[in-house]
Amino acid sequence: SGLVELRPVRDGSAVAAVDASCIRLRGAPRDAAYAVRGALVWRDGGSYAYERYGPYVLPAQLGQLRVGGRFDGAEGRAMGLYEALSAIEDRLRQEACERFRGALILWDGAPTYGERSDAALSAAEARGNVVIAISKAPPRGRLGAYSKLLSASAAPCALKVGESRGGSWQAFLAKLSRDGCALRVEVGGAGGEAEAIEALGRLIGNEPLFRGYPEALRVAHIFSAFTKLERLAAESASEMPAGAVGRGRGLRKLFFGPFG
Questions:
Q1: Residue 50 above 60 pLDDT?
Q2: Measured between alpha carbons, how far is 75 from 139 in angstroms, rounded to an integer?
Q3: At what angle do helices 115-126 and 81-99 cross, to 10 degrees?
Q4: DSSP state of 207
Q5: Helix residue spans in the chain (DSSP H)
Q6: Other C-beta atoms within 10 Å of 11: how many?
Q7: What 8-state DSSP symbol labels residue 257?
Q8: Would you give the end-to-end CA distance of the chain in angstroms?
Q9: What is the pTM of this model?
């Protein structure tokens, strides 16, 4: 199929976004400690709410990590930075897919196409959710040439570039706003290509976009990132309680304090 113009569908769909970040604190790779934090942000109507998970300080030898009342991870294995990040992010992705109904669930980065990713997608489908995984990395090679075609378009548009897991995921290059750039977008749980295109229309019709990037996902990235002071605090902590969940009182209170 060729280039398809995306038309906004303003149906009041709720939008939720998940992101996580991980930093290596000290030591050589096999003896390192990691700090991991995740964020879940959702928009329903005109306001955002959020939950922050962590930070968790983890040794390189991963024991049982408690996240949201559940246990994930394998005991006694050496853990790399990517695995530490996935331990939190995969759990948050499933949490979002299980919590909402009829919503658009935004993931930062491509799906892993593994057991955890399949479980999250199954949970989303059971509740009528659609997962949209957005990768910021610039497309290369043939897809890079296609991305220039999309960037030249005056209107939001999408070009299908493949599918995976028996058609469960539909992959596109998509430009979500007039001032945006081409992003790799994978839509899961929508059905076929037409339904995936409609889901992208629901996204641009119900979610503010900043240069073509969904605001909820941008806020989730900000809330999951570590500041320099937080990095210093994590490095000085010998251990932190696992499973603690910080519930936000709203973005205005976060930015402006009790007088906001």
A1: yes
A2: 37
A3: 10
A4: S
A5: 81-99, 115-126, 141-151, 193-206, 215-224, 228-236, 251-256
A6: 11
A7: G
A8: 50
A9: 0.80
